[in-house]
Each structure stands twice: as structure tokens, then as C-alpha cells.
Amino acid sequence: MKCKIYNNAKYEGLDNLAKDLHNFAHERFGFTKPTMIVFESNIENAKKMFASTGHYNPQSNKIVIYTDHRHPKDILRSLAHELVHHKQNCDGYFDGMGSTDPGYAQRDQHMREMEGDAYRTGNIMLFRDWADNYEKRNRTMYESQEKVDIAEPKDKLVKANVSNIEKEEKLEAQKTPVNTWYNNKLYNSLMKKFIKS
């Protein structure tokens, strides 16, 4: 099932991870309707202690996730939660639903059960299974790449006219797993964005 992703927040690196998480959820749940994922920046929302971190609109099959001042893992966990709401919608559980204004999960037993399912299935099971699977796939890719690197002589990996510093950086980059490289790049990007010198 296709999924459109709009990164209005310009949060670097989220698109591919969100697509991978969506595809993992689709394999598990078998979505019958396409969905749209929108990452939004809303500083005013981020300033509120109990503001929404995201929401799902069953009429448009649209998921909105707020990204300001949040760790990428937390953002993706919110996405997993909302993907369970999308599954519930595909299964018809939103038919004839009531209001979703503040307090709905305390007043409406059906909606309360749906929220409980989204927390248990999305935040705990779906997200955790996806994250572990994602890391395992990246580790396997790195290990297979490492076997190829070991078979090749090191002098073929780097040209002779490259300085010693550049040689060391290239060798280290080849040893670094993709997910570690990505996490370091994301971390450095976030540090530049949120920490002022």
C-alpha cells in the first residue's frame, strides 16, 4: 500500500525511516486504504506541556506528527501509534465514532479501547519490532560488507596519493555500520540546530 510523506518540518532523515516503518506496519496489518504522513513543525504546540504529539484523521486517512524539540525515536514511536489508528480505520472501528475533543478517551469506552490498543500495539509492539528489525537488517548489511572488505587488501581500498588522515577516515567510514553513520550524522545535525555555541 502506497504512502505519501510530506516532511513540512524539514526534519532531516525522517522520510526514509517513516517509509520503512509504514511498510513494516503494512506487512503486519495489511492496510486496505492508502495513508498520508505529514511531519509538521509547530513551536507553539511544542511549548505546551500536554500538547498533542500527533493525530490521525480517519476521514482523510491522514497522520500528522509534530517534530519540534523531539528525539527521532520519539517521533517514530508516535508514528507507530497513529499507524495503529489507521489499521483500526481500515478495519471499520472508526465507523460512527464520537468526538475526539479533550477527554474523549475517558468518556467514550469504545474510543478508550482504541487508544489502549494504539498504545499497546503501536508504541510497544509495532515500534519495538520494527526498530529491532531495522537494526538487525543494517547490522547484517554491515557484516556482509565487512566480509568483502576483509577479503580485499587494504592498499587497494585507498589510493596512494591520499594523505594519512584521509586514509584513516576512509577506512573508519568503511568499518562504520550504516545505522551508526546515520545516527551520528543525525545527532550532529540536531546538535547544530538546537545547541548554540
Written description of the protein model:
This protein has a domain at 3-132: Zincin-like (2-Layer Sandwich), CATH 3.30.2010. A 4-stranded mixed β-sheet has the order 1-2-4-3, with helices on one face. It has 8 helices and 4 strands, in the order βαβαββαααααα. By secondary structure, it is of the alpha/beta class. The chain starts with a strand and ends with a helix. The chain is globular.
Keywords:
197 residues; alpha/beta; Zincin-like; four-stranded mixed beta sheet; 4 strands
Structure at a glance:
This protein has 197 residues and is α/β, with parallel strands linked by helices. It is built from 8 helices and 4 strands, in the order βαβαββαααααα.
What's the arrangement of secondary structure elements?
Layout: E1 3-7, H1 14-29, E2 35-40, H2 43-47, E3 54-57, E4 62-66, H3 72-90, H4 104-107, H5 109-151, H6 154-157, H7 164-175, H8 178-194
Parallel strand pairs: 1-2, 2-4
Antiparallel strand pairs: 3-4
Could you tell me the strand content as a percent range? 5-15%
Largest pleated sheet: 4 strands, mixed
Mean pLDDT: 79
Category from helices, strands and their pairing? alpha/beta
The H-and-E topology, N to C, reads as: EHEHEEHHHHHH
Count, helices: 8
CATH class of the domain at 3-132: Alpha Beta
Distance between the termini: 44 Å
CATH topology of the domain at 3-132: Zincin-like
List segments where confidence is low: pLDDT < 50 over at least 5 consecutive residues: 147-162
Taking strands numbered 1, 2, ... along the chain, how are they ordered across the largest sheet? 1-2-4-3
The total beta strand count reads 4
CATH architecture of the domain at 3-132: 2-Layer Sandwich
Work out the helicity level.
55-70%
Overall, the morphology is globular
Roughly how many Å is the radius of gyration?
21 Å
